[in-house]
Structure prediction request, 300 residues.
Amino acid sequence: MKIDRLIGIITTLQQKKRVTAPYLAEKFEVSRRTIQRDINDICKAGIPIVTTQGVGGGISIMEGFSLDTTVFTEQELAAIFTGLRSLDSVSSSALAERLVQKIGGSAAVRLADHTVIDLSSFYKDDLTGKLDRIRRAVQETKCIAFRYCYEKGEAEKRIEPYLSVFKWSDWYVFGFCRERQDFRMYKLRRMWDLRITEESFTARDIPEEKLRFGSHMTDDYVVPAVYEPSVKYRLVEEYGPNSFTEQEDGRLYTEWGFTTPENAAAWFLSFGEKARVLGPPEMVERMKSTLDAMKNLYET
Prediction:
């Protein structure tokens, strides 16, 4: 991409002070004419570039010009590399490594090596293919279609894709559902047979509230409960170290809100005998009936 190359040229000039056009052309794998156009674009952006001929000549930033180095500090370049490498974990493009090679080795690269962000999962190969197809569909403004599995069953979906979203420790596609005539989020792990259709669409304006993902989800169904000390790590991991009260008998007391009784039941059942629901009464009854049904399942 051209913007990558322009950043690379400026960074190279900052590091090496003076380079030749053939050097830049070889480094960025373009023609000398392209390098000259890039130099002109950099000058238009307000960074004075000087080209000198003869022995010891070359391309350099004008002497005395102070480029605001806060744009390219080692820490900020490291953050760029770290972010790109995190995307490389779910992409086949290896964008970060290509950009590092273009800009060249620096302390920023070493700083970036101190942080590893892996956005993939055990189904990385399947995930990478889905994300690549979604990106291509967004760029080409083409609808995507897929089979989707959710609590109501299975369905064929067709949407206008706008964003790939990583949230709640999972990947989603955000798009406009033709059937529902509304913007929706779809979890990538629940879809298969994802394909780009030949149907184009005109990009819609996305209402600001739709971009506040999860804002419609409220945690107003409060359930008091106690947990055995052995599962303290899960409470800390999920809600933090100050989210519960330790009782005299060592058990941990909480009053947390859930989006629905169904979500609350699934949470407490995941603890087995290590958690006990104290209320509301209908929630206690829900837990009892669920456990009875599970017991009957294994007795038949």
